[in-house]
Give the backbone structure.
Amino acid sequence: MKRTTVVLYLILCGVTTAVGATYQWTDDKGVINYTDDLNSVPSKYRSTVKKRDDITTRDPKVRQELLEQERRARQDELNSPRIQPSPNVAPPTPTPPQFERPAPVPGETPPGRSKSERIRENIERRQIE
């Protein structure tokens, strides 16, 4: 029990004293890159690497800069013109294609028509008249 407590205490002490460093370099395309591990910097850029302070929010300068950026973003949002959404207009509904049916000959039923088709035609014809 004592051994695990001592090991845990040593681990916690090591974590609190760890200081993060940030490395910055610019590649051939002019892009500025950042990393916290010097080994991840390509070898041809290692001579141009600049060591920076820790850029986490624990640094008071970084925290203040983040607060300023947030304040400026809120101010810009308030100063920007409001966009008025257009009213939702439903798209026109497509009308089904209308097919011309040949005029029926009185007393004659065309072949292949069912009874329901004949009833539907009679209803349509009466609505037109």
Remarks:
- The longest strand covers residues 22-26.
- The two ends are 100 Å apart (CA to CA).
